[in-house]
Amino acid sequence: MLRRVADDRELAQMVVSAFSSDIGNRLDEMDLAITNRDLAAMCRIAHTVKGAASNVSADTLVTLARLIEAGAELGDWKYVVERVQDLKAGVTGYREVLRTRGWLPTNEEKPA
Predict the structure, then answer these.
(1) Domains in the chain, CATH or no CATH each
(2) Contact call for residues 48 and 56 (beta carbons, < 8 A)
(3) pTM of the predicted model, to two decimals?
(4) What are phi and psi of 19, to 5 degrees?
(5) Residue 85: its pLDDT value, please?
(6) What is the Cα–Cα distance from 52 to 101, expressed in whole angstroms?
(7) What is the pLDDT of residues 37-84, one digit of tens each?
(8) Secondary structure class of 8 (helix, strand, coil)
(9) How does DSSP classify residue 103?
(10) 49 contacts 87 by C-beta, under 8 angstroms
(11) How far is the C-alpha of 26 from the C-alpha of 109, rounded, in Å?
């Protein structure tokens, strides 16, 4: 990620912090899309998550969002729900790595 921002640690910190703050909202939107069985919304949200995760070089999250998007396009709710759970676990792990490496404060605790 630092390469993407020309080794500007302050900018990288801002991008990572914004992603971490926003991703919980996207996961909530995914839960609502599942509740409403709204495939179009799920595709849109997954696409947004895929781009945001790409911006912070969270490759595993990009892959999971891509899988959710594809599953929604196929109308496979069981697959989508399973991948959303995987994404939530991935976000939790990503945040923990960021905290461990000092990129997020340890008190930032909005669970996935």
Answers:
(1) 9-100 (1.20.120.160)
(2) no
(3) 0.87
(4) -60, -50
(5) 98
(6) 20
(7) 999 999 999 999 999 999 999 999 999 999 999 999 999 999 999 999
(8) coil
(9) S
(10) yes
(11) 16
